[in-house]
Amino acid sequence: MVPLVNVVIMVGMLVVVPAGLHLIGVPRAVRAAWLAGAVPGAVSLWLPRGPVAVALAVLYALATAAPALHAAARLARRRCLAPREVAVLTALVTPAVAGLSLVWERAGHPLLGFKPAILALTVAHFHYAGFAAALTAGLVCRATGDRVASKAAALAVPGGTLLVLAGYFIGDWAELAGAVALTAGMWLVGLLTWTDVRRRAPDPLTRGLLAVSAAVLAATMALALSWALGEATGLPHPSIEWMAATHGVCNAAGFALCGLAAWRRLRPRPL
User: Fold this and answer.
1) So what's the pLDDT on residue 36?
2) What's the rounded Cα separation, in Å, for the pair 44 and 18?
3) Rounded to 5 degrees, what are φ and ψ at 235?
4) Is the pLDDT of residue 113 over 80?
5) How far is CA 122 from the centre of its chain?
6) Contact between residue 204 and residue 191 where contact means Cβ atoms under 8 Å apart
7) Transmembrane residues, as ranges (predicted)?
8) Calpha distance 35→37 (Å, rounded)
């Protein structure tokens, strides 16, 4: 499972987040800082755990502070927060969770009781369920004219992500509540992408990419919900390895890569 998870994380670092930062329209210095840390962070994934891997992971963790600091500055300029702005701020902040987790995972030490194998999955999770999901919810919210359903999605995705994170510490039932909120938000994102955004796309390739991104969410989030339900109740559910190979890979390739490629082709004004 380790090479597969590493590839998913590396794609998040080097492709998904840089593409998303461009769509948000962060300053060039923030994008440069990200890449300066993402490259050594990606290299650290393939090295044996130890001081060298940790040093490279620290550079990545420092780079994740750049979008988080930009989020703080952006928040300070806002008198009120629209739902899509909540989603954008969430996207900017969540990579910092991945950065912190990577440092401890590369050191081979538990963090707050979580073993390195779980920390590696946390790194992947906060590139996709954190950054890519929240960003997409914000993009869809604006593209659909801030409809009630899109506002609900733009709040449910960040709220669900926060609850899932809290569930790591509170317990499986909080994580299940987060999975329910996140799944509901992502299904709304997928539905609005399919019924609204896709239909207004100017060419077949962009429509196809949006269709794949929306359709993948229907299956991958059902898997996430079944896993969280099983963890909370003891009912049969997919293993971590199965989730990484299905939910993780499909979200990375189908939802995030196809979706962000489509949004780049749509050339929306920066969020």
Assistant:
1) 96
2) 18
3) -70, 155
4) no
5) 10
6) no
7) 6-24, 53-73, 85-104, 116-140, 152-170, 176-197, 209-230, 242-263
8) 5
What pLDDT, on a 0 to 100 scale, did the predictor assign at position 114?
Answer: 79
What tokens were used for 212?
């794949």
- DSSP character string of 29-92: HHHHHHHHHHHHHHHHTTSPSSHHHHHHHHHHHHHHHHHHHHHHHHHHT-SS--HHHHHHHHHH
- 173: confidence class by pLDDT, cuts 50, 70, 90: confident
**Chain centre to alpha carbon of residue 51:** 28
pLDDT at 2: 82
pTM of model > 0.70: yes
pLDDT digits (tens, 9 = 90+) for 216-250: 999 999 998 898 888 888 888 888 888 888 998 99
- CB distance 259 to 18 below 8 Å: no
* pLDDT category of residue 1 using cuts at 50, 70 and 90: confident
DSSP-derived secondary structure letter, 271: -
State how far the Cα of 234 lies from the Cα of 175, in Å rounded to an integer.
14
Distance CA 20, CA 2 (A): 25
Q: Which residue has the tokens 């609850």?
A: 163
Which residues sit opposite 114 in a β-bridge?
111
**Residue 145 in 3-state DSSP?**
coil
Residue indicated by tokens 């130890």? 50
Q: Coil, strand, or helix at residue 14?
A: helix
